[in-house]
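Tokens as discussed.
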């Protein structure tokens, strides 16, 4: 992590005097009278150009001189270990800049049309009109895994701009500052926060007194060209396979040349129109090398449309989906040795709520806080992709070994629930006064009516079904919430006192299903309520498996989210301070949930859910895992609901950070479920499916007239019979059902069998 995000200098003429930029330095420059006067002078000169009293050439010279003499500069890309602005000492900041110069319309109109309202989504920290008054500059966080050049291309794509400033790939490139009036957007906290940086491709810088011109280091005459291995994160072999499918498959002999020509024409759009690059990534399809290369050159000499063809877009989408599935299988697969890593870049709330625990405990806290967050939502509904209305119902079980730090979730939950606990305390007091008044009221006087609206949300698990129903009715549509240090405490709430398992209510709680009781007594509770009950519990792996041993196939596990603590560090964890400042920050955040009501719609959340549903469908098909498929349906829904809660906490602004968290939380939840229950669920599903088979079949009937031991073993496995069929074959031979041809080691059905089963044979 870099504590100094970028650097500052009072003048571009002093490249050896770069210093760490601070909020004070930046704000002082933005408010500088000299800077403001210079920007006004440039604007006045631009008006002269528009009026025809000053030539464009003279204006450019004057502008360059004014900026160099009067404006400070900032290098948003990096800080410099030796204070000199060059790449050799550059330390990447994790920021990039996007310059849109000589816009055909007013830069402020451009900003309103293309950027305004999308700042969080695009990672923008600062936006301002350029000193010339003709362009706009965006300072944004480099998306994870991208170089500066890739980030620039990404931003151009997000803004649908056909061209962009190609110099930004240089770490030492700097920007002139402007006056405060030119600033369109400024998030000081985001701009100066610590962030993970990436190192872009090498570049050289030529420093002049008016700006910094940069270019990548070109290969020498003896050095072969170096090409990227992927396009926008998609390996080229994946793209080629997708294009082959779009073009109807690998060509037959006689159609190779036309196919290669067509393929090369499409690959131009992702290989920089470079025939050598295309030759590097494209198969020969059996074509002779010289003819192959000649065809590529012909394709690259053909006139090219500016717009990307639809086939290329479809192929990229297909390749990206396939890559995501393969990445999930490898990195986030259920057989991975450890759970998926939580994203380093988190939403503002997630950074706050996890800031006081070590890194190895952050995933547990991040997953555990959602039941408490959901408890703050009253009347809030989300529309899922199947058109069903869902509510923020969350149940989380933290599964980890003894003394591993499971209590790390308690303080964050306490902070989130502080306002509810305060309200509960007062309502409990009023309810106790009512009970005392009721009990002391003389028999010949009218008993006081039970007070209405005294909702108590944070409840103990030790309650009768009647108390549960009454508390739910009193809550008036609010969520009840419970936290248990051991999963077994859930059984204190029994379904009408029958059995010793509460999973029926758990399933109702996730779906907000109806639950209640009818009693004839005047003092008995007769209510029917929609169950809204979020809860947290913790336990060890063995106890967790034992608690849910009878719930492998009833849908309980798919409704609950699971988390764990994975670490090789046996040192005692050290926590931060949950002081008053922290409490107030959390309280301010959850107010967004308290204020929310009605149907909340976020199209980007539904688009993400649709992508994840399709990815999971492809994954389960490739992995051939019925257990994963069954668990993934509701795990995707739970991830969607987590994204919607973060959307509310982020002032109803969707961002890449939310999307990354939603994806991670799904894979993390699935990894935990498969780790804890995967094998048991597989066995239970196999047993359940075997039950529907209506008895054993005559295995000989399922075999051809001539068969082998392997054929018999395949039939046995298909019928759910374990073991090898050697013993069975010996019995069949001894009884005359079949005979063995010792030369071919094949068995033939014998007369004894054929005479009794003439219609059963092939």
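Sequence:
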């Amino acid at each position: 992590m870099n504590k100094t995000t970028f650097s500052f200098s009072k003048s571009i003429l002093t490249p050896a005097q770069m210093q760490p930029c601070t909020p004070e330095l930046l704000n002082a420059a933005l408010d500088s009278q000299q800077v403001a006067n210079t920007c006004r002078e440039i604007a006045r000169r631009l008006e002269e150009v528009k009026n025809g009293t000053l030539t464009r050439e003279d204006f450019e010279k004057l502008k360059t001189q004014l900026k160099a003499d009067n404006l400070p500069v900032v290098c948003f890309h990096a800080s410099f270990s030796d204070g000199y602005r060059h790449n050799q000492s550059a330390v990447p900041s994790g920021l990039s800049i996007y310059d849109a110069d000589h816009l055909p319309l007013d830069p402020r109109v451009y900003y309103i049309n293309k950027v305004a309202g999308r700042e969080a989504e695009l990672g923008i920290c600062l936006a301002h009109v350029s000193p010339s008054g003709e362009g706009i500059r965006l300072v944004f966080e480099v998306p994870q895994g991208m170089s500066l050049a890739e980030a620039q291309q990404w931003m151009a794509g997000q803004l649908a701009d056909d061209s962009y400033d190609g110099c930004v790939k240089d770490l030492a490139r700097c920007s002139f500052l402007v006056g405060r009036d030119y600033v369109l957007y400024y998030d000081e906290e985001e701009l100066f926060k610590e962030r993970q940086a990436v190192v872009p491709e090498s570049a050289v810088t030529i420093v002049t007194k008016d700006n910094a011109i940069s270019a990548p280091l070109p290969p020498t005459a003896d050095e072969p060209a170096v090409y990227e291995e992927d396009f926008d994160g998609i390996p080229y072999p994946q793209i080629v396979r997708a294009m082959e499918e779009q073009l109807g498959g690998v060509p037959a002999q006689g159609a190779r040349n036309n196919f290669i020509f067509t393929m090369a024409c499409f690959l131009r759009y992702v290989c920089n129109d470079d025939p050598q690059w295309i030759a590097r990534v494209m198969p020969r399809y059996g074509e002779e090398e010289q003819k192959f290369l000649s065809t590529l050159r012909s394709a690259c000499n053909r006139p090219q449309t500016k717009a990307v063809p639809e086939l290329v877009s479809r192929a990229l989408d297909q390749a990206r989906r396939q890559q995501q599935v393969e990445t999930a299988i490898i990195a986030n697969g259920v057989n991975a040795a450890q759970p998926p890593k939580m994203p380093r870049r988190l939403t503002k709330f997630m950074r706050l709520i996890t800031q006081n625990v070590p890194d190895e405990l952050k995933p547990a806290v991040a997953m555990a806080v959602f039941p408490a967050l959901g408890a703050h939502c009253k009347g809030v509904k989300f529309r899922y992709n199947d058109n069903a209305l869902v509510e923020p119902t969350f149940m989380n079980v933290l599964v980890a070994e003894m003394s591993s730090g499971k209590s790390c979730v308690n303080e964050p939950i306490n902070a989130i629930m502080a306002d509810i606990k305060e309200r509960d305390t007062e309502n409990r007091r009023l309810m106790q006064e009512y009970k005392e008044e009721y009990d002391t009221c003389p028999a010949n006087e009218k008993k006081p009516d039970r007070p209405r609206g005294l909702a108590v949300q944070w409840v103990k698990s030790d309650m009768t079904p009647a108390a549960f129903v009454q508390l739910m009715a009193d809550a008036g549509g609010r969520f009840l919430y419970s936290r248990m240090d051991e999963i077994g405490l859930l059984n204190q709430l029994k379904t009408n006192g029958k059995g010793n398992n509460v999973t029926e209510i758990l399933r109702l709680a996730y779906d907000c299903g109806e639950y209640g009781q009818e009693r004839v007594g005047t003092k008995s509770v007769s209510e029917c309520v929609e169950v809204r009950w979020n809860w947290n519990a913790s336990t060890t792996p063995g106890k967790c498996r034992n608690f849910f041993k009878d719930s492998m196939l009833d849908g309980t596990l798919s409704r609950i989210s699971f988390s764990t603590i994975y670490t090789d560090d046996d040192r005692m964890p050290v926590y931060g301070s949950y002081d008053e400042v922290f409490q107030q920050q959390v309280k301010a955040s959850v107010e967004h949930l308290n204020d929310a009501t009605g149907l909340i719609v976020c199209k980007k959340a539904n688009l993400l859910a649709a992508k994840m549903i399709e990815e999971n469908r492809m994954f389960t098909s490739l992995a051939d895992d019925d257990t994963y498929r069954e668990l993934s349906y509701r795990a995707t829904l739970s991830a969607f609901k987590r994204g919607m809660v973060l959307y509310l906490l982020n002032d109803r602004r969707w961002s890449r950070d939310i999307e990354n968290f939603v994806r991670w939380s799904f894979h993390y939840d699935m990894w935990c479920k498969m780790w804890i229950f995967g094998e048991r669920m597989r066995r239970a599903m196999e047993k359940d499916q075997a039950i529907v088979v209506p008895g054993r079949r005559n295995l000989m009937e399922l075999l051809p007239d001539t068969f082998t031991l392997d054929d018999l073993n395949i039939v046995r496995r298909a019928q759910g019979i374990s073991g090898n069929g050697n013993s069975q074959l010996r019995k069949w031979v001894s009884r005359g059902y079949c005979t063995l041809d010792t030369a071919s080691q094949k068995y033939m059905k014998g007369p004894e069998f054929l005479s009794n089963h003439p219609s059963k044979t092939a």
